[in-house]
Specification:
Blueprint lengths: L12 H30 L4 H14 L6 H12 L8 H19 L8 E2 L2 E2 L1 H5 L1 H21 L5 H18 L4 H10 L8 H26 L4 H28 L2 H4 L5 H5 L4 H26 L6 H12 L3
Antiparallel strand pairs: 1-2
Helix pairs in contact: 1-2, 2-6, 3-4, 3-9, 3-14, 4-6, 4-7, 4-9, 7-9, 8-9, 9-10, 10-13, 10-14, 13-14
Length: 317
């Protein structure tokens, strides 16, 4: 029997239309800022260096849902700030995300050939250039933060605080640490759901939480608001990952833009692998309700955040 997910889904057409306009405007702003940042690197590049910039552009501007930058902008709005104030956080988080995907796809990691319907970065540019492109995107993310901290003392304080949050989320205690656990748990015989939950919290939840917290810091959020948004990030991040795991089992590869069934083939530890499909769906529903309830506490200012979370957990790609 298939579990019916009791998850809040936006059905108001006017609300959806308003959100779509916001998403398109915010996405275009992020896209233009990312392009501008990469264009600066094109200047005075020797021929040997142009391939690196091309690989960075391929990974960073090659599509994607832009969920994390949108989360940063929505969080700034939720705490009463202006989305554009959170643009440095949106850019930095997306750069970290793009770097992580390049490295995840490498033969020494998940060894994937396709990403977003295209050959992965190392398939196009070679493993060495792809590896270095990931390294360069990671360092560019913190350069992006630093460049935006010189406008005033308050701007510098907020940027510094946000940069620390992103560094922790991306490092050994966060995303990178989660990837280590992911590799260690492959084909494991004694993996528990608590172990999987900790792995996914680090691997996916930390960067989602950092997007929200960094955006809110730049938007002037209070400590209480930051705590709420961090918890939303962890909760929605786990829900997002479970949805990803379920799509990997039964999604359409043409829609997903990547192979399905790869997790099972590698013996990956995941919520469906431990709990089964129905158990994973129940966990997804529970996490979604918690995230939506917390987002609702921001009332009208959090409307875009609420719709964004709904889209994250109901997606088919």
């Amino acid at each position: 029997m298939k579990v019916k997910l009791m998850m809040t889904k936006v059905t108001d057409k006017r609300g959806e239309a308003e959100f779509e306009l916001w998403r398109l405007k915010a996405g275009a702003r992020v896209e233009a800022a990312l392009e501008k940042s990469l264009s600066k690197l094109d200047k005075d590049q020797p021929p040997e260096g142009s391939k690196l910039i091309e690989a960075m552009r391929y990974a960073l501007l090659g599509g994607g849902k832009r969920l994390r930058p949108l989360l940063a902008l929505a969080a700034a709005e939720a705490v009463g700030g202006r989305p554009r104030e959170a643009l440095p956080a949106a850019m930095a988080v997306e750069m970290v995300h793009a770097y992580s995907l390049i490295h995840d796809d490498l033969p020494c990691m998940d060894d994937d050939d396709m990403r977003r319907g295209r050959p992965t970065c190392h398939k196009v540019f070679g493993e060495a250039t792809a590896l270095l492109a990931g390294d360069a995107l990671l360092t560019l993310s913190f350069e992006t933060f630093a460049e935006n901290g010189v406008k005033s003392l308050e701007a510098g304080r907020r940027i510094n605080s946000a940069a620390v949050q992103l560094a922790r989320a991306a490092g050994a205690s966060g995303m990178v640490g989660g990837q280590v656990l992911d590799l260690a748990f492959e084909n494991g015989s004694a993996i528990t759901i608590e172990m999987v939950r900790e792995m996914e919290k680090r691997k996916t939840g930390e960067l989602m939480a950092a997007a929200l917290v960094c955006g809110a810091i730049l938007g002037g959020g209070s400590p209480a608001e930051l705590r709420t948004l961090r918890q939303i990030g962890y909760t929605a991040g786990l829900a997002f990952q479970i949805r990803d795991d379920l799509l990997n089992m039964s999604g359409d590869p043409k829609v997903l833009g990547k192979a399905v069934g790869s997790d099972a083939a590698r013996g990956k530890a995941s919520f469906p692998a431990i709990l089964g499909v129905e158990g994973a769906e129940r966990e997804l529903a529970s996490l979604t309700e918690k995230a939506m309830a917390a987002a609702a506490s921001f009332k009208l200012r959090g409307r875009h955040l609420s719709v964004l979370i709904s889209h994250m957990v109901h997606r088919n790609m």
